[in-house]
């Protein structure tokens, strides 16, 4: 585990962006003129790290943070603008769909093509062919052009090739999110076997998978390394960052202060999916720990939390009902409540008024995973009401647990008694 397999030293990648295609031609025929017709975009800026044999390293970051650019440099698809890179051994990569395969070739032909690109002879690929076809498990489609494949079939073949060509370094970029769950599980089992004495770079937005499979996590943002450390700690800070930067105006000085006295729960993401007649608007949401009144993005079962919702009334509304639902990754509503069923009546909402409300509760016995909160404001009753504002998936949080084993399902059962009856 002491051998350094990947050594990146101040890797930088700068792209030239042109407003119009003609600008590229103007610059090409400028004959020494210093006038620039492009803007420089720095996708990576002096990225440095070392990865040792036997390490499984997760790379996380929001879209556009430089993850895919970094992987393409590591695999030789792109050349860095500056910096040095050293990679020891053969690298196999499963990048975005389409990379490395010729759509006109059959699955079999693409297997040999991939082997040739990696430096294997036809005889060596002949020896690996049976294992690749068996793992891909796509039947007679292996003899058809890959342009006829579904995305799931494509991933099956690509992963089968990547994992069975005996690389020293395996790089996976999000592609496993496409396949069906049985194949995903099959891939993860194979990764567990592979990583025992090899090196794996794992890029994913699934923080649970990153925390489970990786020994270390690198967090990229806007082309620079924000943090490099233990997966759970890095993921915790990354998710808190994403919650604040995507959905709220956030100020470090606001941590721990009384929420209703500042603006750190204001929604500013225009891409949020909002339903309702707009007589009232939900303009803010925040999830806080009750004990220290600090914003949280990762919680544990039973933790006391307080959900704040901020509403602006564009019209006078009689008997407003404040509520929220919690949904899992498959968009299933796992629990919900509102002020009406809690018998907390609110008489009126006046035009132009901004109201802050809070729901305090213990995190329910949810299974580990990522969840969203959708706040809502209606009027009327539980059986007959008008929806004024419903913000789908306005807030994201993650439930974690210290238990060794976790089973699928909506909730986790505690204090279960088991006995064998004679």
Please describe the topology of this protein:
Elements: E1 4-17, H1 21-28, E2 39-52, E3 56-60, H2 67-74, E4 82-87, E5 91-94, H3 107-117, H4 122-136, H5 151-164, E6 169-173, H6 181-194, E7 199-203, H7 207-213, E8 216-221, E9 224-229, H8 231-247, E10 273-275, E11 280-289, E12 298-300, E13 304-313, E14 317-318, E15 320-327, E16 333-338, E17 348-349, E18 354-362, E19 369-380, E20 385-392, E21 395-400
Parallel strand pairs: 3-7, 3-8, 5-6, 6-7, 12-21
Antiparallel strand pairs: 1-2, 1-4, 8-9, 10-20, 11-13, 13-18, 14-17, 15-16, 15-19, 19-20, 19-21
Helix pairs in contact: 3-4, 4-5
Highlighted features:
globular; Coagulation Factor XIII, Chain A, domain 1; 422 residues; 7-stranded mixed β-sheet; alpha+beta
Give a description of the structure:
The chain is an alpha+beta fold. It has a domain at 253-400: Distorted Sandwich (Coagulation Factor XIII, Chain A, domain 1). It has 8 helices and 21 strands. Strand 19 (369-380) and strand 20 form a beta hairpin. Helix 4 (122-136) crosses helix 5 (151-164). The longest helix is centred in the middle third of the chain and has 17 residues, at 231-247. It is globular, with a radius of gyration of 26 Å. Belongs to the ABC transporter superfamily. GO terms for molecular function: ABC-type transporter activity; ATP binding; ATP hydrolysis activity. This is Teichoic acid transport system ATP-binding protein. InterPro entries: AAA+_ATPase, ABC_transporter-like_ATP-bd, ABC_transporter-like_CS, ABC_transpr_TagH-like, Bact_Polysacc_Export_ATP-bd, P-loop_NTPase, Wzt_C.
